[in-house]
Amino acid sequence: MKILDYSSKYEDSWIRCRTLSFLYTQYFDDVLQTKPKIDGIELICVGNNQVIGLLDIEIKNAYCSYDKHQKGAMIETIAVHPDHQSKGIGQKLLEVAEERLKLEGIDYLEAWTREDDSSNQWYIKNGFSQFNSYFHVFTSGDIKTSNPHFHPIFTFGHVTDRKQIDETVVDRIYECRGYVKKLCIQN
C-alpha cells in the first residue's frame, strides 16, 4: 500500500473507488464518470495497482465559508474502498495532505458531509470541529416554477432552516454538516 500523487493513469480506478465508497452512504447518487479537476492536492492510496483510497483538496479555488480572513482549503472528496475501510487509510491520506497544506501556508481545512455517522465520527476523530450546517432537500413530482414552459420532475436544493421545508412534498432531507480543522503554520 502506497500513498501517491494522483496520475491520470489511475482515473478509472479512482472513479470505481469513489463510487463504491459512496454506494452505501447518503451520497449514493453522487456518481461521476470522470475525475474532476482540482487545483490543489490530489492523493491516492494504491494497493495491488488499484486505488483503494483517495483525497482531493481544493486550494486555489476553494469556496470556504469558515473564515474569509484566513487562507482555507476544502476537502472535495475523501473516499476509501469498502474492502479497505477501518485500516487507517483515510487518516494516512489526511496526514500527508496536512503536511503539504502547512507548507502552502493554509490556516484551516474545511469539509462538508451529510449525516452518515461513520463519516461524521471520522472527522471528529481526526481533529475537526463542526461549525455550521444546512439541509440538502430532494423533491420530485409536480414541482411548480415561475416559468410555465419549464416542468422539473426532480429538484435538489439547499435550505438553512428545516422549519422552512414542507416535508409532505420532500423525498429526502439530509443535514449537511460543515467541519473545520485549524492547521498550525510552519515558519
From TrEMBL:
Gene3D superfamilies: 3.40.630.30. It comes from the Bacteria. Keywords: Acyltransferase, Transferase. Residues 1-166 form the N-acetyltransferase domain. CDD domains: NAT_SF. GO terms for molecular function: acyltransferase activity, transferring groups other than amino-acyl groups. InterPro entries: Acyl_CoA_acyltransferase, GNAT_dom, N-term/lysine_N-AcTrnsfr. PANTHER family: N-ALPHA-ACETYLTRANSFERASE, N-ALPHA-ACETYLTRANSFERASE 50. This is N-acetyltransferase. It comes from Macrococcoides goetzii. The lineage of its organism: Bacteria, Bacillati, Bacillota, Bacilli, Bacillales.
